[in-house]
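Blackboard transcription, Thursday session:
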Amino acid sequence: MSTLVLLSLLGFLVLFLGAFHQKKLLLPVAILGLVAAFITNALDWGTNHLWYNMMLYDNYAVSFTGLMIVTLILILLIASYHFRNEDSHVADIYALMIFVLVGALVMTSYSSLVMLFVGIEILSIALYILAGSRRLNLASNEASLKYFLMGAFASGFLLFGITLMYGVTGSFDLAAISDYANGTDNLPLIFNTGVVLILIGFAFKIGAVPFHFWTPDVYQGAPTLITAFMATVVKTAGIAAFYRLFDTCFSGIDGVWYNILWVIAVATILLGNISAVMQSEAKRMLAWSSVAHAGYLLLPVLALNELSSSSIFYYTAAYSVASVTAFGVLIAISQFNNEMPVDNYKGLAKNNPMMTLALVVSMFSLAGIPPLAGFFGKYFVFLTAMESNLNIAVIIAIAGSLIGIYYYFRPVIFAFNNDGQPMERIQTSWTFNFVLALGVFLTLLLGIFPDLLANLPGN
Amino acid sequence: MITAALIAFPFLAALMLFLLPANAAKKGALVATLIQAAFTAYVIFLFDINEHRSLLSNEQFILSENWISTMGIRFFVGLDGLSMLMVILTNFLLPLIVLTTWNREFRNPRLFYFLMLMMQSALVGVFVSLDAFLYYIFWELALIPIYFIVLIWGGENRVKITFKFFIYTLLGSLLMLAAIIWLYLQTTDRSFGIDAFYALRLDPVAQRWIFWAFFIAYAIKIPLLPFHSWQPDTYTTAPNAGSMLLSGIMLKMGIYSIFRWILPITPMAVSSYTDVVLIMCVVGIIYASWIAIGQKDLKRLFAWSSIAHVGLITAGIFTLSRTGFQGAMIQMLAHGVNVVGLFFVAEIIQQRTGTNEIAKLGGIRQLAPVFASCFMVITFASVALPLTNGFIGEFLLLSSLYDYSYVFAAFAGLAVIFGAVYMLRAYKTSMLGENPAITVFADLTISEKLVLFPIVGLIVFFGLFPQFIFNLTDESVKYLLTEISNHMVPNL
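(Written on the board underneath:)
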């Protein structure tokens, strides 16, 4: 709870610093605040506080919150480089990102469907603004509007589902719903409908097929940094909330939603990967790849066994670190352009060894090449799925990762392409270099010693 | 500890290369591989052929440390006769391969030799791993350096070709990964250890699935027909050192893995699919030999002949007989040595004349007699003339095939004749006769002699005294045979 309060206050503080033009203080204050939040969050480990039957701050919530705070710190360090030439409203952007984190925190720790909805709304509204934060850019405005319309739809579905569940069980409380679901032999149709509607709402939020249509446009239209933020923190929050609901309420029940979720997961993996292959735009490609990753993340939700939460956590951690690094490289190369063809990576290797290393490591990690973190994440997810006999889904997922090689390798191949003029050395700031170095280091570290995180969130 | 050091040393040496100035990278790599070879010689000296412990016959220098304890994954390595043979092959060939690049200047040499040493580390890792997960990591890790070696320093069309190569091998690997996970879920104490995998008694249907998942991975790596289509292009476009790594050592990963992982875990599937695999191999041998006859380019010819050779090795293994196993072991070593020699010959010709096209060569023997003689010995070895190392292995393999079925032996034997046709013809056209176009062809330089003379020496030495290899691998072969026969009946 202290983390929640701290983060909310931090958001306001950053906002006021912006209002009083203390630009120099923005980044240090935001980072310090986030570090403090990380510490108070870590102190909650093992306490299992239940706040007024609304939020349960268990280890699951602590782990995911910690991960999201770290990811946001990395993104803010890149942000100082990304926004170095922009005077206006940087403080607003920082503050909004922190507010998104507040929503994300609520989404990982809710124990009542009301809080779930509140969390999603806090997160979404801040995000709508962020997606449109480049006010004079048409694509950014379009992204914002699209995201808003789609997000509103998703919220509608979710809310409708929650209402139906409430109608059947008479409670918003997860424990009560779980009791009802486990104690009833034939679940009424209205209950199942409610679950499916909630599922659709989540599928919208994490961008799973067939509710993924907004993802490529929004990811491309939004400023690149915001895209990185959406692909990591927001996706983590979405999948964490998704799994929390299914784990608490529906584990052990063979519901109608099982087949629906199976199809969604498999279709997301296939369509995400295949569409990413066809992109010639680096950012759009990463957007589609994030759709594919949402599909892999759905496998443990589907498996719903004792390994699921660990594998989701590990996968999101590996994926977040690699994505931030990959987007960081993209930001440096594209230099504020929202459109960047994949060929723009051409000749990178010659004069930018550090950035090339970061590119290779992050792309290989996303592709799932050992011994990087992404490989272990995939392995963990496959293991979890096979434990619940999802062998066919795993085979399809394997085919998907094979397709993934194609598009993840293209930037790398271009980087080592020496025909023509090699790319100039790109000027970066030390915080930016620090993030890349840390990303490479963490990806290798987590890949070689997965034990560091493989036990989280614990039972 | 010794086993871990064998893996770690090339890796650390690879990192150290970046501390050296760019033009010293070559020397650094040579020194590192020589130290590793000397270290390997010391390990051979320590290795006790007759020592028996509980694990895998004469497995020694075992190191088992928890790595990812939550998942039962260990850093579990050791050396038995079979692993020893592969480690010897890897570590003694690597200095030679580094030496073959002595006269060539690479763009960004530090990265090149770094990748080469990384590859050595991963290859040794594959050959000594006793934990399936660890083995898989090294298996994949060996792929990355060679991918970059071909991508960055390769010839024409390298982007497309390396891509095909990567996708192909990764497809196999991922199937294998699924099989490994499945096997892990079947073990009683949730372990990836080879002992736990060997203790599994799978029902015949499961064995078939697992067999194919593993076998396709290996068939792609070796490569066997019809999974071979990446190979000729990749071997041709790769820089010669890369082709040597690929054909000399890396394809042995597949053959080694058949011994280590397929045979003892899915023996029933192996015996029920013997004919299928043998037909694959024999058709592959004849097809590859046939194509090789028509090749105009030396490197491509060697690539296709390599497919024929490894087909024969695999066929020998699947006869599940002692002769077949022994023949395969010897032939793995012999093929590794010979193919490095052949690709180096192609490299020398390419450097001197600017072409590898057989028809454009000729008359080199008069200009460079030492070189031509070395090439001759290597040619003889690869057509399996008696007194060369190729003979013993091929003889054993064919005789094991004959014991299994004379039909297969007859067809495979035909391929040996084909082999003589294309190799001798290539030799004749490129070395003998007169060619007014080639007037200058310098004979071997010192560094080239340092590569070719040891290779010729090894060819003759193992042709005359193959007993060393028999002794080294005998325990492993016996163990494998008993293990297979014990597992033929599932515990129901």
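Lecturer's comment: Residues 138-169 of chain A form the longest helix (32 residues).
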